[in-house]
Amino acid sequence: MTKLVCVHSYRGGTGKSNIVANLAVLLAQRGRRVGIIDTDIRSPGIHALFGLERAEIHASLNDYLWGKCLIEQAALDVTPSVASPGPGGAVFLVPCSMRAGEIARILKEGYAVERLNDGMQILSEALDLDILLIDTHPGVNEETLLSIAISDSVLFVLRPDHQDYQGTAVTLELAHRLEVSQLLLVVNKVLETTDQDGLAEKIVTAFQTPVAAVLPLTEDLVRLGSGGVLASLRPEADYVRRLHAVVGLIDDAAARPNAVT
Asked: Which GO terms describe its cellular component (predicted)?
């Protein structure tokens, strides 16, 4: 049975999509079949991390939501971008459209949110996924609440910033009301000079929610400029090493028989 993992942040610029892409690669290296669905329809971008150009995206989540294709027809196999996947490991991405007219149509007309829910279930079964990562639009809206409500785990990504703290408190409260099974915090873009253990302890105390990882503000990602996935290109990087802790928390204990753990 597919485990649904929603990755969310209250504001943009937290590095959420980079975290999603790197988690997908690390899970595939463990031998998991991983899906990513980009529900940030207003400002899509995770496809760039896997080296996909707009011309390569022949079908998108938008097309599925408008009834133009099946959800699995919009899924692209990006496993070739994964360095050393484990036996059976794979990554599939359902991107959003980058065409300005289609983004404008979504903003103007919207879509049936229930269809998005159905698509996640269909995609999971069609591709026999172990884990489906949902890259959400920042903030609180109808599709984000739906993604949180149907998820087995929710990762809230925040920076050490007072606006992030206040917004995360709001979304955490909503997730508690929706009775999500597993809530985790990932603190990103933390300066190397910061007492990271002390910061994690303060955040756990403030939010009464486990901190899965404290990730450094790293030049590695700045140099990449969204031109690749760090876990594939520099698996020894501290950022990647710290993400292994997150993978260990969200990865299903009932792993596939041929999976590498």
From this structure: cytoplasmic side of plasma membrane; cytosol
> Which residues are within 8 A (CB) of 205 and not within 5 positions of it... i.e. 6 or more apart?
none
Q: DSSP alpha helices (H): ranges in the chain?
A: 16-29, 46-49, 61-65, 100-109, 113-126, 142-150, 162-177, 196-207, 219-224, 230-233, 238-250
| CATH topology for the 3-250 domain | Rossmann fold (3.40.50)
pTM over 0.70: yes
Task: Measure Cα distances from 54 to 18, 73, 81, 128 in Å.
Answer: 19, 16, 17, 26
For the chain, helix, strand, coil in percent to 5 are 45, 15, 40
**pLDDT per residue rounded down to tens, the chain (261 residues):** 899 999 999 999 999 999 999 999 999 999 999 999 999 888 888 999 998 887 788 899 999 999 999 999 999 999 999 998 999 999 999 999 888 888 788 778 877 788 998 999 999 999 999 999 999 989 988 888 888 999 999 999 999 999 999 999 999 999 999 999 999 999 999 999 999 999 999 999 999 999 999 999 999 999 999 999 999 999 999 999 999 999 999 996 444 444 333
